[in-house]
Amino acid sequence: MTPTLRARARGYLELVHPFPSALTVLAVAGFAAVAARGLPPWPAFGWVVASAALSQVAIASLNDYCDQALDAAAKPWKPLPAGLVSPRAALLIAVTAVPLAVLCALPLRPPALVAATLFTAAGLAYDLWLKGTVWSALPFVAAFPALPLWGWGAVAPFEPRLLEAYLLGAPLVVGIHLADTWPDLDADRAGGVRGLAHRLGARGTRRLMWGGFLGAPALLAALSLAPAHNRTPLLVASGLAVGLVSSALLLSRGGLARWPLAFGLLATAAIVVGVGWLASLQR
After folding, report:
1. 189 and 98 housed in the same domain
2. Residues 174 and 146 in one domain
3. Cα 105 to the chain's mean position, in Å?
4. Which are the contacts of 2, defined by CB distance < 8 A and separation ≥ 6?
5. What is the pTM of this model?
6. Cys bridge to 34: 256, 257, 266, 278, which one at CB 3.0-4.6 A?
7. In this structure, are 170 and 279 located in the same domain?
8. Is residue 43 reached through a cis peptide bond, with omega within 30 degrees of 0 on the bond before it?
9. Separation CA 155–CA 31 (nearest Å)
10. How far, in Å, are 77, 144, 238 from residue 46 at the CA level?
11. Residue 4: phi, psi to the nearest 5?
12. Neighbours of 37 (CB within 10 A)
């Protein structure tokens, strides 16, 4: 049976992983707004949002292209195994979106261009090589702390303090990686995937995941003692993040059916941590 036009359109939308992609773009836009202390100037804001969106399109499309055999066995409803999007189309979208993402970042300040390139390259490396290895968390550690540098660097001069993102973000992004992988552990393992979460097992994955998400707010609170930071945003963001992570933990006890909502809360907590930390640099 040939898929309808509506079904194909839904397939293309699902191909780009709309929820996590939208959260990533929202995070970059939020970081730019914090750096600008309000509405970021045009056209820089448009370029940074476009580059982030295209980067996500490239990474998500290539992810589904690389996982098509695994998805055919474990997730036959996804766009490629369901026949809603052809593998050739998914690859073409990824190959087209990568240079477009970099081109949209070219008009920005050099630090934003570097951050955009690093984020995109790390995502592609995960899709192509590292997902099934013990180093599966490494692209996340390299990529996600670059988001504040991407947003900030688009509208404001670079500051060395921005590199704190890698200290603060390491536990958080490991948690995000494990939270993204945890629901698929059994299916991935059956398909031969041997990433970090698969080697840790379900119990080890949960422990490290929750430890990472709770460790980041603790680091925020510790940074409030540093003289170069505004204490109030750090403490407010730390409290909000703890509340979001605690709510996600309670939801997770309801099993996989409630996990998408729990994951949304965890992703929101990550954005809150990043925004609170960036706001603390504004004195």
Report:
1. no
2. no
3. 18
4. none
5. 0.89
6. 278
7. yes
8. yes
9. 10
10. 34, 20, 30
11. -70, 165
12. 11
